[in-house]
Amino acid sequence: NFHSENRNDLHPADEAVFSQAHDWDRPEQSLTSVDEQTFYRRLNSFTSSEEVLSFISCKLQTLPDTLAAGALQRICEVERKDGDEKLPKEILKNRVFQALCIQCEQEPSGLPDTVLVTTLQALTLLHVDPHSSLVLSLVAECQRRLKAGG
């Protein structure tokens, strides 16, 4: 019911949706014209941070804030599944990962409440520096919303 109300209708099992997924392979494809559900389905199919970062790398310029936060969350999920307590240095130094962090840091007010909190939780579970500008920005936005009655 939720999906129907929000125009995120689930496709019947016999209906092919692969044509949408292939649109993501084209760097010139605007993310705003592609279904978010397809993006998340594809994102969740990746089993390594490198796969997520590679997928996101050609889409950074058009990636909406909520999808950037979703990519950060997926990176954290994948790293936690590997049993790591911290993000590996090669991930932290990766230019795509840094660009995702900057995007989420600069526009946390555009993130829905659940995305904001889940992203912050994912980063803290992997012991990302609590004094990093990203974590401080997300915490400040959470505090602002709480003070405003959110």
Task: Provide a descriptive summary of the structure in words.
- GO terms for molecular function: kinase activity.
- This is FAST kinase domains 3.
- By secondary structure, the chain is mainly alpha-helical.
- 60% of the residues lie in helices and 0% in strands.
- The chain has 9 helices and no strands.
- It is globular, with a radius of gyration of 16 Å.
Set down the secondary structure blueprint.
Layout: H1 2-5, H2 18-23, H3 36-45, H4 49-57, H5 65-81, H6 89-92, H7 95-106, H8 113-125, H9 133-147
Helix pairs in contact: 3-5, 4-5, 5-7, 5-8, 7-9, 8-9
Offer a concise description of the structure:
The chain is built from nine helices and no strands.
List keywords for this structure.
kinase, globular, single chain, 60% helix, mainly alpha, 9 helices, kinase activity, 150 residues, disordered N terminus
Q: Tell me, briefly, the overall form.
A: globular
Question: What assembly state would you assign to the polypeptide chains in this entry?
Answer: single chain
Mean pLDDT figure = 77
Helices and strands, in order, run as HHHHHHHHH
Q: Which regions contain 5 or more consecutive residues with pLDDT less than 50?
A: 1-33
Q: What's the main sheet like?
A: none
Q: How much strand? A: under 5%
Helix vs. strand class: mainly alpha
Evaluate the radius of gyration.
Answer: 16 Å
The N- to C-terminal Cα distance equals 25 Å
How many alpha or pi helices?
9
Write down the domain tally: 1
Helix content: 55-70%
How many strand elements?
0
